[in-house]
Design goal:
The complex is a heterodimer. Chain A has helices spanning 13-41, 51-63, 72-92, 94-103, 105-120, 127-134, 138-162, 166-174, 179-201, 203-216, 222-229, 235-263. By secondary structure, chain A is mainly alpha-helical. In chain A, helix 3 (72-92) packs across helix 11 and helix 7 runs antiparallel to helix 10. Chain A starts with 12 loop residues before the first helix and ends in a 6-residue tail after the last helix. Chain B is of the alpha/beta class. Chain B has helices spanning 54-62, 101-113, 116-121, 124-143, 160-172, 190-207, 218-224, 268-282, 308-319; strands at 8-18, 27-38, 43-47, 69-74, 77-78, 86-89, 178-182, 210-214, 227-232, 235-236, 247-253, 288-289, 294-295. Chain B has a seven-stranded mixed sheet with strand order 6-7-8-3-9-11-13, sandwiched between helices. Chain B is globular. The chains are: A mainly alpha, B alpha/beta. Chains A and B meet through helix 8 and helix 9 of A and strand 6 and helix 2 of B.
Amino acid sequence: MRSFFRTDAQPSVVATSLLSILLFGLLIGAYLAGSYYRHQENPQDKVMPTVSEMLDGMKRAAFEPDRNGDLRLWVDTFASARRFGIAIGVVLLAIPLGVGMGLFPYVEAVFYRFIVFFDKIPALSVLPILFIIFGLDELSKIALIVIGVFPTVALEAHLRAKSIPREQIHKAQTLGASEHEIAYRIIMPQIFPKMLDTIRLNLKAVMLLLIAGESLAATVGLGYRIFVVRRYVAMDIIIPYVLWMTGLLFLTDWFIQWVIRRRYVWVDK
Amino acid sequence: MAANPYLISLQGVEVSYPKNGHGDSGRSIILNNVRLNIRAGEFLSLVGPTGCGKSTILRLILGAQFPTRGQVLVDGQPVSGVDRDRGVVFQRYSLFPHLTVVENIAYGPLLERTSMPQRLLCTPAYRRTRRESLAEAQEYLVRIGLNPWDGDKFPYELSGGMQQRVAIAQALMMQPKILLMDEPFGALDHNTRLAMQLLILEQWEDYRMTIIFVTHDLEEACYVGTRVIGLSQYWSDDNGKPGIGAVIVTDLPTPGGHPKPTAIRATAEFNALLEQVRHDALDPTNRQRLRQFNLIHQDALKPEPLSAAEVSEAKEGTDA
């Protein structure tokens, strides 16, 4: 214990693993205890369902068709993933735009201030406007995510493109590279892995906006579902859904990190 | 007008910036009316104290920067920007970190041999040309002293000296008439430096190009160069009044033939040269008078620096 608050402490692998699961264990333990006592008092308690109740809820959502004959969990996951994917695809376009702004002063003059302004709009506040303009369809939900995250990514790409040493540009010019060649074959590939990181760190924002959109107007989707079943205090669905979403995001994050490490070994060297 | 016999000419070049003081309309002068003629095939070393503007001269010839007044001619034409006719090697950032060694070397030739649609669509013709260019680069790699298996490494995997070899190869693949080098060996240890000096002299002999070599290492400058130019902001006019901006204070041919035997470094003549240039051009406390400048190279021009009053007058004239 004497070495607990030491910068040069070297905990063993076992100690690190045990300490890492400590807080998870406490949280789960507290929940199980709470759930147990509530069920002692009222076997019908819905606020803190037991593990078996939650497993049961998930089993129904995943494997038993509902009224419409859908396997809810998969249908919801697919619908949300589709919106998520399309939005990320659109957000990727912010990278070439940011690079263009960073390298070409005229492009910067046209877009930069506009995007800085755009970036300050609280995305959720325009949701009503989006619903009015684009209707309650997919488009408004995807537009919400794009409005929220696109400017951030574009501004980051702008900064990163600007921070590439001038020498790289001059060097490319002496090798006969055209302006577009420099922007999109020399500068953009150099910052691309960093931009993947930016998108990775913004995954939560994307998901947040997606759930906000789904909760207000949708007929299917992970965010939609947890808000619908809230009416019946169906915690046995809500809690597993939250864990499911967290797990999916965690895996996406991990996957992007893996791609960066594998595909771009020269980054940060 | 007679044809300009020089490959590169700096004609009355001034580089200056507005001063950052409030109510101060003056300008900070970096280069004061610099005149310099360079013949094809010269290996010109440029030395001077920190901040004298030697890298500025290099950037002017490169086309990455433009003079406030005067002009820079290459082949009799004013330099209008950076292009493929002049190669460059910087101290750092010369290589593209996301490309492998052979990709870096083959980058220029590949651009030259393919068109943009081909590259975008990655057509079979493009892929064939790419293979050929990479194979050529691989061959060249060995000639500049790298191991064949270094070709597929990324620049970060190479030592500083090896990286600079690749940067030189990358520039030479374009067979530029002029190669500009800005402290290319500045970050290398002593022995690597000596090896790199021999390498660049070999390449200079093989390709017969013109090299402008900026360095802060005087011995290196005198060893590799056929001509040594000392640029300094520490000088005074013939009345002893300190001058403004940098002018060329030394312009000498180096002794010992070209390229020189390495043994020349030990000779008295070579060391006397070093001592003299160090005193004339590199010592900030020595404000040489205009008429004492050591300008004995056959192409040396008499400097005609402007006084502060003349500079601001000329400035107002052009602004109006």
